[in-house]
Amino acid sequence: QEQLVESGGGLVQPGGSLRLSCTASGFILDYYTIGWFRQVPGKEREGVSYMTKGGYTDYADSVKGRFTISRDNAKSTMYLQMNSLKPDDTGVYYCATGSYATMEKRVYDRWGQGTQVTVSG
C-alpha cells in the first residue's frame, strides 16, 4: 500500500520555526518529485515548494528565504523546514509526490493526510 504520512505540525509563535516530515512507504521515493502544499478554509490548496528527483528546488514567493525543502531518500522521508513563521503561514500542510517539476497540484498523484500548522501568539 502506497502511503505518505506527515508529522511535525503544531502551534508556534510568529518568528518561530517548525520542521515538517513526510515518510513514504510502499514505493520508492527516489523516483519522484516531492512537493509541499498548504490550504486554509475557503481557499484553494496552494503550492509551497517542490524538489525534483535530481535536486532542483523551487518555492512560492511568499516563503522564499524562509522555508527549505529537503529529502533523505535512504529514509524515504521529505522535510519542510519553516523559519521566521508568520500568521499567514497558518494552514493544513500536505506532502505529495509526482512526476513533473511543478507546483501545480493537479499533477501530483500521492498525497499525505495533512498536518495543521498554526502561527499565533
Which terms summarize this structure?
single chain; about 120 residues; mainly beta; seven-stranded mixed beta sheet; four-stranded antiparallel beta sheet; 11 strands; about 0% helix; globular
Note the topology.
Blueprint: E1 3-7, E2 10-12, E3 18-25, E4 33-39, E5 46-51, E6 57-59, E7 67-72, E8 77-82, E9 91-98, E10 108-111, E11 115-119
Parallel strand pairs: 2-11
Antiparallel strand pairs: 1-3, 3-8, 4-5, 4-9, 5-6, 7-8, 9-10, 9-11
Architecture overview:
The chain has no helices and 11 strands. By secondary structure, it is mainly beta. Strands 2, 4, 5, 6, 9, 10 and 11 form a 7-stranded mixed beta sheet that branches. The model has no long low-confidence stretch (mean pLDDT 96).
